[in-house]
Amino acid sequence: MTQAPTPPPAIPMYRAFGTNGEYTRPARTIGELPFEQRQPAMALARQRLGVDVAFGTIIGEQNGLTLAQTRNDSREWLQWRGCDLPLSMFWPTNQRGHHDD
Predict the structure, then answer these.
(1) How confident is the model over 46-64, as pLDDT tens digits?
(2) How many domains in the chain?
């Protein structure tokens, strides 16, 4: 079995925009990660979730399911694109640490 890539020590910060303007917070999804960390995160998600994950493709379709099959499956995340996967689903809990930023 291939060993999953090791993610950074903590989830990287993401520059977000809200009603009060710009602010930073830890990234929440694969799509919010810096570009160079997205492929390793998808590899980690593949290993942890046991399915193929592609950045902009609906996960169920990427794994040969029809849209109807993904809707009927109890795993709601099969309807999401890889970029929308929450990091909390597969990122090691000991590496979701706090930031000093």
Answers:
(1) 999 999 999 999 999 999 9
(2) 1
